[in-house]
Amino acid sequence: MAAAKAPVPSASADYLDGLNPEQKEAVLTTEGPLLVLAGAGTGKTRVLTTRLAHIIASGLAYPSQTLTVTFTNKAAREMRERALKLTGEAGEGLRWLGTFHSISAQILRRLAELVGLKSSFTIIDTDDQIRLCKQIIEAEEIDPKRWTPRYLASLIDGWKNRALLPHKVPGDEAYQFADGKGIKCYETYQARLKVLNACDFGDLLIHNITLFQDNPDLLADFHRKFKYILVDEYQDTNVAQYLWLRLLAQGNSNICCVGDDDQSIYGWRGAEVDNILRFEKDFPGAKVIRLERNYRSTEPILAAASAVISNNKGRLGKTLFVGGDWAGDPDAKKVQVRGLWDGEAEARMVCDEIEAWAAKGGKNCYEDCAILVRASWQMRLFEERLIILGIPYRVIGGPRFFERAEIRDAMAYLRLIRSTDDDLAFERVVNQPKRGVGNTTVQKLQRYARDDGRSLFTLTPMVLQTDEIKGPGKRGLTQFIDQINLWRDRYNSGMSHTDLAQVILDESGYTDMLQKDRSPQAQTRLDNLKELINAMGEFENLTGFLEHVELVMDAGRDGNGDEVQILTLHGAKGLEWPLVFLPGWEEEVFPSRRSLDESGMKGLEEERRLAYVGITRAREVCRISFVANRQIFGRWQSVLPSRFVDELPHDQVEAEAETGYSSLPGSEDGFTGTVEDLGERSNYTSPGWRRLKENAGKYESGPVIDGKATLVASETGQSGFKLNQRVFHEKFGYGKVMDANGTKLTVAFEKAGLKKVISTFVTAA
Ligand code: ATP
Ligand code: MG
Fold this sequence. Notes:
Radius of gyration: 29 Å
Distance between the termini: 88 Å
CATH architecture of the largest domain: 3-Layer(aba) Sandwich
Structural class: alpha/beta
Largest sheet: 8 strands, mixed
Bound molecules: adenosine-5'-triphosphate, magnesium ion
């Protein structure tokens, strides 16, 4: 009967060429619920796009009668382009192709009145959200230091992800905030938004759901309107998105979802992988198609990804075969795993490889390369190395390291120490963290400064002697000026620039502000600040460092599109590159310690899925690396390779540890030899390697001998250095040992001053 209404789908259309039988079936099964459940790179997104093109080309629906949801704006753009290419002009009315946010915003815009908003409503961003929470906390007389606005905002987001309006939040969850005031604050927050004629991102969906539930006629209109619904990355939908889709699909049930349970990586943001596992129950009569041929990656890449993910317990399990041009490719390169000395060596290796790739490649070879990291602080070393080599790059989905808000704040303090004339720096941090210095006060100061021709910093103490500024503003400004003066004096009388930065962050209350802030972003920002101090350690003094950053920022401005891409593993979902680097595969970094601490086994499995996503982004070459020593939280630590390294299949991997691990001669693990030996002997799974891991914590890094690291049992804790011995440190240069406590040395460096270092990084000179 469908055939009577619509033109017969042309099963021989061009766009079907090249699809395998299962893919073709998924494209042509247009009626009824359909789930395409398949591993990475099997063409799920391609199927979805082709299906959309097919529906339009064969006249089953007008473009405006299709609803297509993708995960990111970038993915939506790509899908639109592809669909337009396949259908030509006919695809132009694809109004309802976008992210959950963009589509639900469109719907709400037209129907805002029904939920008590005007159609001119504002969508507020995270900053505004936090500001609003702050006002509520103040009004409720809650201690904002204990219960931060950011934390309240993240709780509210969490409830909205679960589609819970205040009256639906389970009572005991109120206790997650301010001794039971959580729900009350949420209620006030919603009421305030209404007064402001605004909604936050979570509200877009929530209001849509309310609309549909309260207005059956309206919902029926949408059912008539959206003849076909298509959803990509279904495994990462949260409860609210899921409810929204179910309501819309109740009409004719022509819903096609594609996804991969092994790539569910947004559990921490409320995604429910169960949604995909439950599909057949939710949509009776649903057809499930599995795709088993991966067209993206070579055999070794696929084997590596499959081996790692097979360690997860909670999964459906799938088989993947190599398809397309890669099948049986004799030149396929094994996945390379390399152990390196430290983060700098790793960045050098990665960038050398990129240069080598570019040297043999033709046009646009930089954009073939992607560096995928677990956490944004890891980006810095790569960015710096790329800049030194003049390789164009782009950070996708976030600012470059030195453009991050917290880094700019810290830099502004340092710039003020260097030059009190720096008004921009003054303005940035005079009330960051909060000191009661409001905008009007700052504007007043700016006006005086302009009239007077002096800098803000010089003028402020003069104004403070008058009655122009009073109350908290006066106190805050006095404290600010005094602190800057004090810090500058300390720096001028010999404090190192790295210590200076730490002192500023601590004494200004900046660290405290972030520590009290319980949102997930706060920890990232603290980590980034620690990485900033690591970066400073590479320069002799403050001026050298600031100049460097100014140059780095400048270098970042050009770029012609052919750029190496740096992004987080989360941001890389659905994308692909010929050459993919996966650095930092070390315990605590990846899997991330936080995720294990907070979510235990569940967290570990999500991290492992992230590893799977990472490996499967590579088409031709995948390079995994880890280091032996990492500066973590400002201090050098010896680190262990990630457990995921051990899970890689030996026969598909080429391993090489250049440096980093050798054992203490005579230690009871019985393994002696050079670092290269270890790399060879261990092959990452040998008993020696495992012992090294089992003994983690029992050993610390010993002195570097002949350029090789050694391990010493930490119980004995001998550094092997004598008082007054002359030593050399790679970063700080020559110095004299002033104190030796276990493996920690205090060394008076000739240039860098007194520093505490771990003896690993010091050689006898
Ligand atoms: P992910 O799980 O990572 O989102 P996916 O399943 O969505 O992956 P696609 O991105 O659609 O996979 O496809 C992966 C690659 O394989 C793309 O480059 C795509 O063009 C190609 N591809 C898909 N199907 C075929 C096919 N039948 N023949 C040749 N190439 C194909
Ligand atoms: Mg995809």
